[in-house]
Amino acid sequence: MDNKERMELAQWASDFAIKKGASQAAVAISRSRSVQVEVREQRLETIRESTENNLSLQIYRDNKYSGHSTNNLNKGQLEKFISEAVDATAYLSPDPDRELPDPSLYPADTSADLGLYDPAHAGVSPEFRVETAMQTEQLLRQSYPELLSATARFSDNAVESVRVHSNGFSGEQRGTFFSTSASLSVLDGTGRPSGSFFAGGRFLSKLPNSDEVARKALEETLKQLGAEKIASGRYTMILENSIASSLLWRMFQPMSARNIQQKNSFLDGMLNQAIGSEHLTIIDDPTLLGGMASRHFDGEGIAARRRVLIDKGVLKSYLIDNYYGRKLGMTPNGGSTSNILMAYGNRNAQQIMEGTRKGILVTSFNGGNANSTTGDFSFGISGQLVENGKIVKAVNEMNISGNFKNLWNQLIETGNDPYPYSSAQTPTLAFRDVDFSGL
Q1: d(CA 255, CA 92)
Q2: Looking at 90-208, which runs of residues are DSSP E strands?
Q3: In what order do the strands lie in the sheet with 282-284?
Q4: Can you give the residue ranges of every domain in the chain?
Q5: Is the Cβ–Cβ distance between 404 and 370 less than 8 Å?
Q6: Which among 124, 247, 271, 438 could bridge 398 via Cys, Cβ 3.0 to 4.6 Å?
Q7: Residue 190 confidence (pLDDT)
């Protein structure tokens, strides 16, 4: 079944739901195929291959709502499935805000090519997958013979999908994704530090080669040798670009219309007010060519448009989905993020460290929690102590704590080195006077 046939089936399913008594209906049909291989000790340890067809159905009946899904795409079986879904919805409680998005919010044109599909995917062979992972794992062992364990992986995925709404929307999407990664552990006295490196993207040709994957995984591991706690205190915190997005996701939760409406957000009432320093600019851009989260429309069919979420520290937009937007009386603009960009600075991580007198380069978060209502947070971290511009030693078993209302005002610099293997292309971030607890 290709996307043309899926579109025809989705339109039929939507029409059939209306015929059976639904006021409105939304239907999405997708097919995904994924393959992953994993190599350990030069043996193929795992190979996973899956192909999944799925139909999801949203029924709106007299302001009552229900969601359903099935992997059975046979029309005869779908008639029973849809009929029962419509009938079951009648027993739910009504909610005046349960409606499909207003058609004015749908995209007028979805024909532009966003560069999400790699034709090379069709030529990826089982031999190529295995050889890539084998080579990466072998390079790890050759680079550091004393390692305890090493694992390398290669995976690829292709997805095709369509979406139809009974009030006038239809759209389709197609994309590919490839990834390569390596992880290892080594002996360090009584400790066994481990590290990894992951790279992913839409196009196979843009993945790093096995040499680079193995080298970076080894670097991430060896930088942890001799790690220990250091004295508690306030340090400049330098976040590696690969993990900086972890803090941004914590910011997006209280920006959601759901949390705003339910009074679970420390950003409630802060629209057009400063919530961070002038170095904080966050842009959501679903139109980025080849972006990992690029799209013409979101999961509700709402047109995807570039938007500035935070401009020089000022909160400019909430993440407003259709349902909670109606409750808040706000125009929906998409309740989820896509490709995240920031305003980038003029220095890379090394240059930022060279200008730091007393700081900690944070390379990983090790658990913790954040409260979207108050903004309080506490995270375990590992990293490296920086003194007078140089890395002195590895540190671990330490915590950072504080409140996001203060932390984002402590942002003093963003790097010019956005991380390329994520939908959040975050650079190195530097914060002043962050509380670290250790000894």
Answers
A1: 29
A2: 149-165, 170-185, 194-201
A3: 314-315, 307-311, 282-284, 340-342
A4: 3-222, 226-439
A5: yes
A6: 438
A7: 77
Question: What is the topology classification, in CATH, of domain 3-222?
Answer: PmbA/TldD fold (3.30.2290)
- Side-chain-side CA neighbours of residue 354 (13 Å): 6
pLDDT of 257 reads: 97
Q: What is the pLDDT of residue 367?
A: 86
CA distance 396 to 380: 8
In this structure, the number of other CB atoms found within 10 A of the CB of residue 160 comes to 18
Q: 28 Cβ partners below 8 Å, 6+ apart? A: 10, 55, 56, 161, 162, 163, 164
What distance in Å separates the CA atoms of residue 30 and residue 162, rounded to the nearest whole number? 6
Rounded to whole angstroms, the Cα distance separating 221 from 197 reads 10
**Residue % of the chain over a pLDDT of 70:** 100
* Length of the chain as a residue count: 439
In the predicted model, what is the mean pLDDT of residues 109-128? 95
Q: Residue 439: is its pLDDT beyond 80?
A: no
Three-state DSSP at 373 gives coil
CB–CB of 99/60 below 8 Å?
yes
